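seq as requested:
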Amino acid sequence: MPLTTTHTRLETLDQVADWRRAGQRIALVPTMGNLHRGHFSLVERARELADRVVATVFVNPTQFGPNEDFSSYPRTLEADTAGLAAAGCDLLYAPGMAQMYPFGEARCWVEVPALSDTLCGAFRPGHFRGVATVVARLFLHTQPDVAVFGEKDFQQLMVIRHMARDLGFPIEIVGMPTVREANGLAMSSRNQYLTPEQRERAGLIYRLLREAEAAVLRGEAIEPKLAKGLGALVDAGFKPEYFEARDAESLGPVSSGDIVLLVAARLGKARLIDNWLVQRE
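struct tokens:
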């Protein structure tokens, strides 16, 4: 079946209803477009989990701060469409603003406060409220059985999991491992803001995460390692926002369970985030 593109909620729901009448299982991959290999890996995983795959492309204004890159965020719908078709997507839902926010400014918000005001949320106030709100709307517009998200945005994945559970969405939320460049840099649409030299230098983030993981597994105190990592980022020309270790289930203080190491740093025009899960026996 060739890729179909829809632009309205009603035509999208009509197509989904046809598939449901045929007894087919539906997977969703939400994106903001400007797609890369990491996104396509989500589509490929969705194909394994369902009979039909829906991807969405919508640059959501409510998750951008006032001084962020909403107006300049790359819109590459033609290339995205071709890539999604090659990856095995069945339906591309590319709504306009009137479909997602029919009353103009959002009048009803979805928020997960316990997970939204820390880490990236502390530096991007309102960001995760915008994420949760738009994902909830996309769930309602596409009615999937399963939705696939990248683990690179670990805090976002946790917010969506809690939102779906607490609001009773009958949707399985699946996380997929981060796809990386040859030097370990997590693939991101914003990597294109980096110069070639900065892109190579940005591999330091991955190396610091793995060094911190090794320290945890050796039983060493993690805080000195994190402090040293922040210093290494500064010395390499980054402007770090945080490098922290958190409980992998709650994003609260480290407990006896698994740990997630999380980092955010600016390099040139790009804000880079990454994480690494440390599983402890």
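The two ends are 46 Å apart (CA to CA).
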